[in-house]
Amino acid sequence: MSDVQFARIETPSHGALSLEYRWIHPERASAPLLVFLHEGLGSVAMWKDWPQQLCDAGGYRGLVYSRNGYGRSTPRPHDEKWPVDFMHRQAREVLPAFLDAVGVGPEQADRVWLVGHSDGGSISLLFCAAFPDRIAGAVVLAPHLFVEDVSIESIARTKTVYETTDLRSKLGRYHDDVDSAFWGWNDIWLNPAFRDWNVVGAVAAITKPLLAIQGENDEYGTMAQMDSIAAHVPHAKVVKLPDCGHSPHRDAPAPLGEAIVAFIAAHAQRRAASAA
After folding, report:
1. What span, in angstroms and rounded, lies between the C-alpha atoms of 102 and 242?
2. Where do the AB hydrolase-1 domain residues begin and end (predicted)?
3. How far apart are CA 42 and CA 67, in angstroms?
4. What is the per-residue pLDDT for 1?
5. Res 2: pLDDT
6. pLDDT tens digits for 69-81?
7. Do 186 and 155 meet the contact criterion of CB atoms below 8 Å apart?
8. 5-275 has which CATH code?
9. Sequence spans of domains, the chain
C-alpha cells in the first residue's frame, strides 16, 4: 500500500477539511476501483491489511480514506456533536467532494465500487441513492438502515468499556485524536433523538448493483437490516454469514472476499454481454 496522502476539501456543513487517504495499486488505471468506507470507530489504519488482500484477490485498484473526525483526518472539535443527519452529510457533501479532490470523477463511474462497513455501509447506501451516475455499484457490510435496541445496548456497553479499560489506548493507535473519534460516534448513537433515524426510504431508490452482507452473530444489528434491504431493493444480493459478528472482514475474510469478487465479476460479465 502506498504512503498516506491528504486531500483538502470544503463542505457546507464542515467547512475546510483535510482527509487522509491511501491508494492501493494506483497503476491499475483500467481496473475496478474499490472505495473503502470505514465503520464508526474506524480509519485508514484500522482496516489493516484487508483492503490490500481484497484488491490483490480481485485485481482491483483501491482507495481507502478516513472521514473527518477519524484517523489522521481533521478531528471533530470536542465541543461539537454530530447531528442526527451526520451520515447524510457524509454521503452528500464529504464523499463527493473527496472523490473530486483525488481525481475520481463521474467519467470513471463504470469502474467505481463503494465498499462500506457499518456506518460506512450506511453512508455508501445513501451515496448510491443520491449519486447513481457516479458508481458502478456497492458492497455494504453490516450497514444500518434504522436503529435497533441491540445497537443501542452494544454501543452503551462500549462506552463503559472505553471509560474503564484500556480500549482508549488501543484505539489511540489508529486515531490522532481518539476522543474525537470515540465520542463523536458514541454520543450521536446514544442521543435519544437518533432513535428515529431511518434511511429505508432513501435506500429504496437504489438502482445500481448492490451486495449486502452481514454476520448472523452481529452484536450491533439483527438480520432485520438485511431483510429490509431485500424488501426495498429487490435486485440486491443479500448474504448472511454464519459464525460471523459485526466485522465480516475480520471474522470471515475468506467467504467475504469470495462473495465480493464473484459479485463484481458477474456484474462485469453482464455489462460485457449487454454491450455485445
Report:
1. 37
2. 34-256
3. 9
4. 44
5. 57
6. 999 999 999 899 9
7. yes
8. 3.40.50.1820
9. 5-275
